[in-house]
Amino acid sequence: MPTPTPLQRRSRAGHPRTALVVLVVAALLLGGWGAWRAFAPSPANAGEQLRQQARRIEALEQRSATLARSDQISRQANADLQATLAERDEEIAGLRADVAFYERFVGATGQRRGLSVHELKLAPQRDPQLWHFVATLTQNLNRGAVSSGRLQLALEATDGGSMRRLDWSVLRQQADAPGIEYSFRYFQQVEGDIVLPRGIRPVRVVVRLLPATGPAVEQSFTWSAASAPAGG
Predict the structure, then answer these.
(1) What is the DSSP letter of 200?
(2) What would the CATH number be for the domain defined by 116-226?
(3) 188-213: b or e for each residue (b if 16 or more CB lie within 10 Å)?
(4) How far apart are CA 45 and CA 90, in angstroms?
(5) Do residues 104 and 110 touch, judged by C-beta distance below 8 A?
(6) Among the four 125, 134, 167, 203, which has the fewest Cβ within 10 Å?
């Protein structure tokens, strides 16, 4: 038998290695394909998973919207509560001031005074010419006696550089307008509305009390003081 050449020896030796490499690669490919077939979702399972994910996203979005709405409602409720508490605090402070005044007024050490106007307050309304007034009337000179009569207002104002006085009928826009009745033992708040003519500048308000018996009583208040906001 002739002796194999070097080339023939290399060729024969390379055949087993090539076969082994091919066999390993084939095994890996076959194993990978089998694993993908075993674990990869089928088309039906993929569609169901997509639907489940969509339902979960919808549920989470709905929950997020519900929580946001609940938070908004809670914030609004808290703001309303704070506003209510502030109003109550202001109301309590006013009531305490009134009680202190009444205690001083009707107490044994209170100063004796006849019919008078303790306070006058004016507040603007939506119509800039319309004003609402509240006059606090007092008397403790004759304890137990009833003071009754009518209240009227007059206004001192400048009009075109000159001072003029507007009586009750002008302020009420009614000829021979009757005054507002009052009747009390110690104090009473009398209120009503007046209309200011256009173009005037109020300077002073005069409260005129016309008791059922006895002389009339007049007290004046500056417009700036009477129309100042409460607490201002």
Answers:
(1) -
(2) 2.60.40
(3) bebebebbbeeebebebbbbbbbbee
(4) 67
(5) yes
(6) 125
